[in-house]
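Field notebook, page 428. I keep forgetting to write these up properly, so this time I am using the form the group agreed on. The chain and the ligand, flavin-adenine dinucleotide, are recorded exactly as supplied. Prediction of the bound pose follows.
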Amino acid sequence: MARSDYVPSYYVSSAHAAPERPALEGATDCDVCVVGAGIAGCSTALHLAERGFSVVLLEEHRVGWGASGRSGAQALFGVAASQAKLERLIGADGARAVWDVSVEGLALMRALIARFSIDCDWVDGHMLAAVRARHQRELQAELTALRDKYGYRGVRYVPRAELRAELATDHYLGALYDANSGHLHPLNYTLGLAAAAETLGVRIFEATRALRFAASGNSQLRVQTPGGEVRARFLVLCGNVYLGATAPALASKIMAVATYIVATEPLGAERARQLIAHNAAVADMNWVLDYFRRSADHRLLFGGRVNYSGLRSFDAPGATRARMLRVFPQLADVRIEYAWGGEVDITLNRAPHFGRLAPNVYFLQGFSGHGIALTGIAGKLAAEAIAGTATRFDVFARIPHANFPGGAALRRPALVLAMLWYRLKDLL
Ligand SMILES: Cc1cc2nc3c(=O)[nH]c(=O)nc-3n(C[C@H](O)[C@H](O)[C@H](O)COP(=O)(O)OP(=O)(O)OC[C@H]3O[C@@H](n4cnc5c(N)ncnc54)[C@H](O)[C@@H]3O)c2cc1C
């Protein structure tokens, strides 16, 4: 497979036609260079261009090649860390500000889709489902906290009997339903954002890795690529787990965790509707979680089975299908047409990791599997900060992050041990 090709998936097969952008050849100047054309990078570029900055967006592969184009695509409120944890990390006011930004992130998605006519199958509704009795208690507590502390009215508790009418499975004991969250075709959304950014003047180069960057005097930065360089006043790094040697200081704060999705053959509208009556996206509350939803062409897209060991040898499609059949045994006769995986950038505390490596070098990472909505608003916050209003960006930048223990050699074994512990907890 050529370096610039997408990893095959249902999303790639159902993606709208998009232009192949050229690789950067030679030197070019701009106000801001953005690295990584996932949702974070495309949104950053778009919001900067809207504010009048000239922007160059560099992508090593293709627009949406990474997590953004392979995701479970459940757009959710909040961040991967709980609000209670955020309160401990940055105080009640900080946690409240993060919450407000996350809810605005959902509104921003809808607004961008409408404004730029992005054809990406958006559907309202998400359910967070309890697998164990303690999950039910946690959901009730979360419902109370969201309503009483944050004044959030979009959510309601769905008891088991009602849930059984929504989902054709006995697997779950209850769920928290949020009408404000939703799901979409993540690759078409990302491609749509990129196209929107281009209409505002952003120049996108694909097949162009940002190799390294350095200050070059007069507050200028030089970003080296294999065929040229970008000279910019600001740099925004949105490279997720793929950034690697481009910014080694960021790598120690995140761990790449693999997660897999299978897509069934088309089930037909009626059979798909029988599985998930009102077409909400669903995720369970286990640490090693399952997540699933219907596609616009009536498939079931089922994800889960994270691989923390970093070993590629296990049968990911088979294991993911087996998890799907535990929830929906009635799909035993159904063919799996697509299976793919991707990597999630988890932080040790599961809170997002935004900040600056230098006054003019920003980064957005650590979405911890909870980035479909948050990446978009994160890009808007980065643009705000570069334009001079850093208040909201700096709330996130205040969240403390530890390195993964053990340095490069021991990070993975340490995480495997931690994950064994969490998997045991899932069984209790
Ligand atoms: C299988 C899967 C399922 C998921 N499900 C959900 C879900 O249901 N809900 C949810 O909220 N989140 C989910 N996530 C997480 C979510 O998709 C991500 O948090 C989000 O898409 C991250 O976007 P991003 O722009 O930060 O990174 P990415 O989309 O990964 O984009 C980073 C881009 O940067 C490029 N890049 C990296 N380094 C360089 C460089 N040096 N030079 C040039 N380019 C570079 C890469 O090629 C890549 O295209 C899932 C993720 C995966 C993998």
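OBSERVATIONS:
- The mean pLDDT is 93.
- The first strand starts at residue 26 and ends at 29.
FOLLOW-UP: compare against the apo run.
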